[in-house]
Design goal:
This protein is an alpha+beta fold. It is built from 5 helices and 5 strands. The chain is about 30% helix and about 15% strand. A 5-stranded mixed beta sheet has the order 2-1-5-3-4, with helices on one face. The structure holds FE2/S2 (inorganic) cluster (2 copies). It comes from Amycolatopsis acidiphila.
């Protein structure tokens, strides 16, 4: 059985007819071609698939695509502008927070959601907040440093490019 869905994805309105059992990660990857959202466990354990839905970090393998109706989604594809990395991505690059990179979209969108919510986490809080993303390369120190630096360098709460519908404002 298919269900009609109308949702904003990275600032663009999307209409789709989706199988009722399709989860958001597969919807993004297979229906919209947004393969930056990675899928690891499909059981809610690894956090690789984290995206932002209405400002909250959500494990997209645990949410059905039909539940996106009327909601706003942001994926990692919304961060860079053409070839220009976002400040958060740049911080990951400069702090060597990218190893194989498979988990990186999960970390990036978790941090983006924190900023969107106006949080200014300290290092210990960042560590706690990103605990839902399991990095197989175990590179947490540099990830924490990159996110900490991003917040420090963006005293407005790193919100300069965060809006509810994924459109960039700066
Ligand atoms: S793929 Fe969603 S939590 Fe692992
Ligand atoms: S960088 Fe390889 S899984 Fe995290």
């Amino acid at each position: 059985m298919n269900v009609e869905v109308e949702t904003m994805v990275n600032g663009k309105l999307v209409h789709a007819s989706v199988p009722a059992r399709l989860h958001v990660a597969d919807f993004l990857r297979q229906h919209l071609g947004l393969t930056g959202t990675h899928v690891g466990c499909e059981q809610g354990s690894c956090g690789m698939c984290t995206v932002m839905v209405d400002g909250e970090a959500v494990k997209s393998c645990l949410m059905l695509a039909c539940q996106l109706d009327g909601r706003h989604v942001r994926t990692v594809e919304s961060l860079a502008e053409d070839d220009r990395l976002s400040p958060l991505q740049q911080a990951f690059k400069e702090e060597h927070a990218l190893q194989c990179g498979f988990c990186s979209p999960g970390f990036l969108m978790t941090a983006t959601a924190l900023a969107y919510q106006g949080k200014r986490p300290c290092r210990a809080e960042i560590r706690e907040e990103i605990a839902g993303v399991l990095c197989r390369c175990t590179g947490y120190e540099n990830v924490v440093t990159a996110i900490e630096r991003w917040f420090a360098e963006h005293p407005q709460g790193a919100r300069e490019d965060e809006t509810a519908d994924g459109a960039r404002t700066a």
